[in-house]
Amino acid sequence: MEKYNVVIIGTGAGLNIVNTVLSRRLSCAIIEDTKVGGTCLTRGCIPSKVLVYPADVIREAQHAERVGLQLKLEKFDWDMIGKRMWSQIDENKRMERSLSKSPRLSFYKGTGEFVKDYQMRVKLKDGSYSETFEGEKFLIATGARSFIPPIKGIENIEYITNENFFGDKFPKKPWKSLIILGGGVIAVEFAHIFSAFGTDVTIIEMLPRLVYTEEPEVSAFLERNLNKYMKVLVNKKAIEAHAKKGVKIVKIEDMKTGEKSEVEAEEILVATGRRSNADLLKVEKTGVKTDKKGWIITNEYLETAKKNIWCIGDANGKYQFRHKANYESEIVENNMFAEGDNRLKVDYSSVPWAIFTYPQIGHVGITEAEAIEKGYKIYVAKKNYSSVAKGFAMGLNKGDIDDGFVKLVVDQSRTLLGAHIIGPHAAVLVQPFVYLMNAGYVCNISPTPESEPIPTYSQTCPEAGSFMPIYRSQVIHPSLNEVAGWAIGSLRSVNIEHEHDHEHNHDH
């Protein structure tokens, strides 16, 4: 039986530790059932942004009327846009060739299945199985796949998911009409893309609001703006689907009233969430535990319930973003070979993300409601784009439907708990808050007689994560940075009782 020092299942973030394994002159097996590179490269965030940017430009051209410019889109070259997208996805071919040629590295194309403790076989593309092999250490980085809800008749019609969209279902031209089931990240990004290219889009979301992980006012702001370009139906559940005379029809039910109606379109995109791939791995045969939704359970060191088996990325169900998976791969890269007390713990307190819809959303940390639920005493601050010179220069005025904002959630100790932004360049504007939440103040420790003259170490002060560095910093004027930086000045108490507040009537 072949034996490997390390077995890596999945070639997304799992690839990040290959060099470390090989540099230690260890043997390694890599298993991949689809295209090398994982979801982000081949069927997710990278190719989708190649489509998002042209859509952004179309919307910005329309917005230009607000600043006195009449811009007209003469035409768009969908073939060229598609070729640029495929050029990114096709990077997987070069990566696969590289893996196939690497010494001490065995590449298996198929689905890994545990046979028993630390033993695995691979179901190959032709349906046959590889020989069973053994691994000393395993890394599960198998990602996730689209969750298909129990809609009557859905299995009898063809539909789109993010997997087959970036495959054989990529359209030769934008569809005339599109129904999107779901209101999360994938749903609102695709809605932005296709509505900008002229598709008649309808979003159907069973929850009361879109992007449910965001602040309620962010969700409401997004819904108001998307409704300018498409139809957004929240509190509506898809219960049945069928095709008739070249049209696809979805029957929906109102979650409040039970009233039923129908929506029809040329195509249906199912974007109702993600599900674990752990069932495909048969992890139960090796002692790896999953939660009730099937996500692999990991501890603070990213270990599973089975010693020497780790799990990263979408497979553990926590924050399904590639940058989070990359971060976890660095933790595992250390912990897989760490000795003694040198293991690293994972920290999810400041995981950032962006939603590249229109308007754009940036997010890090917890929401106001989450902070209160966790027992924090908090302030919140909110600042609109129109309140700064650059915002006005961009054609944003107070009261405009698209006058975006920055919202900060701050603990009474001045620690930043969350930053939530919706509007132009939100992904860029939120990033400094991420750095701040991970940095804080650094206190140099005075050297003792026994220590080196120049201290080579420092420690993080209790003020770590405080907003004070922003408060004390100059902000480039005029720029959108002012929206984020000046939000500090509008902090207001939410659930903090201040002594003598009743006497001074809040006028201090």
Structural write-up:
The chain is α/β, with parallel strands linked by helices. The protein folds into 3 domains: 2-45 and 86-144 and 275-335, FAD/NAD(P)-binding domain; 154-272, FAD/NAD(P)-binding domain, CATH 3.50.50; 359-504, 2-Layer Sandwich (Enolase-like, domain 1). The protein contains 16 helices and 23 strands. It has helices spanning 18-23, 38-43, 45-63, 78-89, 91-101, 162-165, 185-196, 216-226, 278-281, 322-335, 368-373, 389-393, 426-439, 468-471, 481-486, 501-504, and strands at residues 2-9, 28-32, 105-116, 119-124, 133-140, 144-146, 177-181, 200-205, 231-234, 236-244, 247-254, 260-265, 267-270, 274-276, 309-311, 352-355, 361-365, 378-384, 405-411, 416-422, 442-444, 458-460, 492-493. It has a 6-stranded antiparallel sheet, with helices on both faces. Strands 1-2-3-4-5 form a 5-stranded mixed β-barrel. Helix 3 (45-63) runs antiparallel to helix 4. The chain is globular and about 70 Å long.
Which structural traits does this protein have?
single chain; 508 residues; alpha/beta; FAD/NAD(P)-binding domain; Enolase-like, domain 1; 3 domains; six-stranded antiparallel β-sheet; five-stranded mixed beta barrel; disordered C terminus
